[in-house]
Amino acid sequence: MTMLRERREPDAREAEENLRVIRALMERSTKYSTFSGLSGIVAGLASISGCVITRSLGSDPGAFPVAFLALWSTVIVIAVGSDFLLMKRRAARVGKHVLSRLGKQMVIASTPGLGSGAILTLFFLQHKMLADIYPIWMLAYGIAVSATGLFSQREVSYLGAAFLVAGAAALFVPSFGLVMMAITFGGFHIFYGIAMSRKEGW
After folding, report:
1. Cα(145)–Cα(140) distance, rounded to whole angstroms?
2. Distant-in-sequence, close-in-space partners of 154: CB < 8 Å, separation ≥ 6
3. Cα–Cα nearest to 141, from 131, 132, 149
4. Contact at 8 Å (CB) between 44 and 78?
5. What average pLDDT does range 4-33 have in this prediction?
6. Who contacts 70 (Cβ-Cβ below 8 Å, separation ≥6)?
7. What is the spatial distance between Cα 164 and Cα 6, in angstroms, rounded to a whole number?
8. Main-chain phi, psi angles of 89, to 5 degrees
9. Lowest mean pLDDT: which of 28-37, 91-100, 119-128?
10. Which residue pairs, CB below 8 angstroms and at least 24 apart, start in 22-27?
């Protein structure tokens, strides 16, 4: 009886340890961890450049809508392109794939927020209200980032929440919209990029 009891106790401890390992692996598999901090810095610098150029063109984007949309489309291409390339490099380094099933789910999760921002941009353009578009961009991006944060590290969720708070504040102070763009899309991204790089490496 004593030998049987001693045999059962190690078996129970081994089963408990196996369950702990399985839970850890399942948690790890549901978190997308190939974000590159460097891509956040690149996106931030591109956004600040966009703000500076916008300011140099004039205070009302409605006076130069084509140039305004072309400029920010370029900023988006630079930010998204560098993000993809740098994530691809990081994914290869940690033995993962950028276009994994989880990565595709994150794209789907972010689509409503980003799509809403694009539609509202067209609406504001049609009604000659482009000068008021900045808070909408912050809120739409904050929604998209918050959605992807459900699949990634908590820092991503913090970034999304920061954009939502800043966007809500910018709605009530529209005259500082471009300044808030520089602070959020520029400063927040750079701060996030540095924080992630120090945590996960470049």
Report:
1. 9
2. none
3. 149
4. no
5. 53
6. none
7. 57
8. -65, -45
9. 28-37
10. none
Question: pLDDT per residue over 96-125, tens digit each?
Answer: 666 667 778 888 999 999 999 999 999 999
Spatial CA neighbour of 86 closest among 187, 181, 201: 201
Residue 137 banded pLDDT, cuts 50, 70, 90: very high
Q: What are the boundaries of each domain within the chain?
A: 1-30, 34-200
Q: Provide the residue type at 2 as one letter.
A: T
**Surface-to-core class of residue 4, CB atoms within 10 Å of its CB (0-12 exposed, 13-18 middle, 19+ buried):** exposed
Please report the DSSP string for 4-54 in residue order. HHHHHHHHHHHHHHHHHHHHHHHHHHTSB----HHHHHHHHHHHHHHHHHH
**Strand residues in 50-122 grouped as ranges (E):** none
Whether pLDDT at 127 is above 70:
yes
Q: What global pTM score does this model have?
A: 0.80
